[in-house]
Amino acid sequence: xTTMTPEPGCVTGGVDTHLDVHVAAAVDHLGGVLGTESFPTxxxxxxxxxxxxxxxxxxxxxxxxxxxxxxxxLTRHLTENQVRVIEVSRPNRQVRRQHGKSDVIDVIAAARAxxxxxxxxxxxxxxxxxxxxxxxxxxxxxxxxxxxxxxNQLRTVVATAPDELRSTLRDLNRARLVATCAAFRVRAExxxxxxxxxxxxxxxxxxxxxxxxxLARTKARLARITTAIAPELVARKGxxxxxxxxxxxxxxxxxxxxxxxxxxxxxxxxxxxxxPTDTD
Length: 280
Known about the structure:
Number of helices: 11
Strand order of the largest sheet: 3-2-1-4-5
Order of helices and strands: EEEHEHEHHHHHHHHH
Largest sheet: 5 strands, mixed
Strand content: 5-15%
Distance between the termini: 45 Å
Number of domains: 2
Shape: elongated
């Protein structure tokens, strides 16, 4: 732990980030509180926050909570303006027990954590192709989960459907079941149980098909970006575009300008993120 002692007259900031409002504190080089203020989470609000901090003197550094979520936009703004940003975790539990939970206490604690050296991590950058991959993985994970849920629900409805439908559908494999049910025709004005059952048996596989198409588009984009930024990693045996685009894997490849040197051995010796997976 390295104590970051700024020159006298410098100011250190702390920010507790939220969806709509960020709360900031400014402390002097000894940790004395110079002021606290709230700012909206807008471009104008970020400019006001930075100007407010600078009104107390030269900025030494700013500790920001949630640099990867609610604080990501503010972190970009501060970094673009040559302000050093330090990632701050939630306040010390002892502080919470002694003083309770409040945004003002949190931001003062964040600023002092930077001064004391308890907070020293540089936040990850949330831009460029690695950030694009992270966003695409969000779509891929949620679509995969929803697609599995849709087909499981379809099987459940088939199991409780009237005998005529159940006997026709129960022994079909997944592909034939989805194709058959997705083609069902249902009269819009018919609200009988039999009609509604056929409607549900049509809607669920059509949702499955929609998600399947979405996954195909997402995987194609993942493969294109990953291959462009880490071609040697993708070309390695057992590491395709999907595995290579896992969080941290491509970031490591970008940082080393090639495959990670930490994966020289067989699959069992590689990190879990580098092992082949099947997300279908």
